[in-house]
């Protein structure tokens, strides 16, 4: 079983029958695993080249892929129940504030922002992000899951 399958199973309560956004999806391994639970997923990345190289023969019907900049999402406010960033914090570190604001903007009030990491460099940035959340009145840490192979910071979007 892939790590993304394990993570998706552990997060089933958050994903089940939800409209999900994944930013900086890379090869979309997480979205592909989460599609077993989510109602609908929009997987975005600045470039979908990594995903295209997977050359999948079959893509789940509930996933849509779009090229989009995580700092300037071309999406309506409050569109998603949950917004997810999986193993991309290292790529987004210099623009993390903008990414966080955009994820919050497109996530429904009382929805969730999940930051999931399994890479060492991302785990360090996740700790910085955990401290940074206190600066935002509309975001509250709702939980922190720590498994051996991965960590998840769960943030509740109090007010859009």
Describe the structure.
The chain is globular. It has one domain: Rossmann fold. Helix 3 links the parallel strand 1 and strand 2. 40% of the residues are buried. The chain has a 7-stranded mixed beta sheet with strand order 3-2-1-4-5-7-6. The mean pLDDT is 93. Helix content is 32%, strand content 31%. The chain has 160 residues and is of the alpha/beta class.
Keywords:
single chain; 160 residues; alpha/beta; Rossmann fold; seven-stranded mixed β-sheet; 7 helices; 7 strands; 32% helix
Radius of gyration: 14 Å
Oligomer: single chain
The 3D shape can be described as: globular
- Please describe the biggest sheet, giving its number of strands, its sense, and whether it closes into a barrel: 7 strands, mixed
CATH superfamily: Vaccinia Virus protein VP39
DSSP summary, beta strand count: 7
What's the CATH first level? Answer: Alpha Beta
Number of domains: 1
What structural class do the secondary elements suggest?
A: alpha/beta
Note the run of SSEs as H and E: HHEHEHEEHHEHEE
Mean pLDDT, all residues: 93
Terminal CA distance reads 36 Å
Instruction: Please give the CATH architecture.
Output: 3-Layer(aba) Sandwich
How many alpha or pi helices?
A: 7
Instruction: Give the % helix.
Output: 25-40%
Q: What is the CATH third-level topology name?
A: Rossmann fold
């Amino acid at each position: 079983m892939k790590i993304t399958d394990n993570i998706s199973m552990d997060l089933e309560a958050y994903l089940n029958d939800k409209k999900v956004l994944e930013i900086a999806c890379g090869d979309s391994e997480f979205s592909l695993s989460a599609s077993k639970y989510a109602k609908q997923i929009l997987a975005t990345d600045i470039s979908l080249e990594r995903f295209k190289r997977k050359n999948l023969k079959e893509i789940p019907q509930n996933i849509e892929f779009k090229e989009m900049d995580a700092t300037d999402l071309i999406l309506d406010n409050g569109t998603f129940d949950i917004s997810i960033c999986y193993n991309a914090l290292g790529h987004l570190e210099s623009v993390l504030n903008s990414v966080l604001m955009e994820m919050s903007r497109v996530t429904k009030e009382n929805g969730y922002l999940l930051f999931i990491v399994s890479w060492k460099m991302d785990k360090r940035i996740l700790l910085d992000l955990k401290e940074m959340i206190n600066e935002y009145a509309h975001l509250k840490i709702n939980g922190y899951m720590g498994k051996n192979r991965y960590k998840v910071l769960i943030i509740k979007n109090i007010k859009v």
